Amino acid sequence: MTVSERPRALHRVGALLAGLLVVVSLSTAADALLHATGVYPPAGQPMADGLFLLATAYRLAFGTLGSLVAARLAPVRPMWHAVALGAVGTVLAALGLVATWNAALGPRWYPVALVLTALPCAWVGGRLAEAASRPHTPR
Asked: The pTM is what?
C-alpha cells in the first residue's frame, strides 16, 4: 500500500466503524431506555415475544441507518461499504445465535431473525444512501 492509498483505506475502515458504532450505540441505548422506563422487564427477567418483536423492529431500523451512514461516509463504492457492514452484522448475529441457542434467554426465532435480516437491511441502507447522493433533477 502506497502512502497515498493509506488515507483512503483509513477512510474506508472509518466508514465501516462509524456505521457499526451507530448500530451498537443506538441498540444499546434503546435497550437501556426500554428497561429504565419499564417497557422491558429488569435485566435477567424473561420478556414476552411481543417485546422481542419490538426489539427486532428497532434493530432493523438501526441496522439500516448504520449501513446508510457507512455508505454515506465511504470515499468510494458506497453500496459495497453498506453490504460489508451487513456482512459484519450477519457474523456478529450468527455468533450471538450460536452462543444463546441452548440458553433460555428468549424465543429462538429472535437471534435467527437478526442473522437473516442483517444483509437485507444493509442493502436498503445502501440504496437509501445512493438515492440521497443522486443529484435532484426538477420535473
From this structure: 0.88
Could you tell me the residue ranges of all domains in the chain? 22-132
Judged by DSSP in three states, 106 sits in: coil
Looking from the CA of 131 toward its CB, the CA atoms found within 13 Å total 7
At position 47, the amino acid (one-letter code) is M
Q: Is 22:59 a contact under the CB 8 Å cutoff?
A: no
What are the tens digits of pLDDT across the range 116-135? Answer: 999 999 999 999 999 988 77
Burial annotation 19-47 (CB, 10 A radius, 16+ → b, else e) = bbebbeebbeebeeebeeeeebeeeeeeb
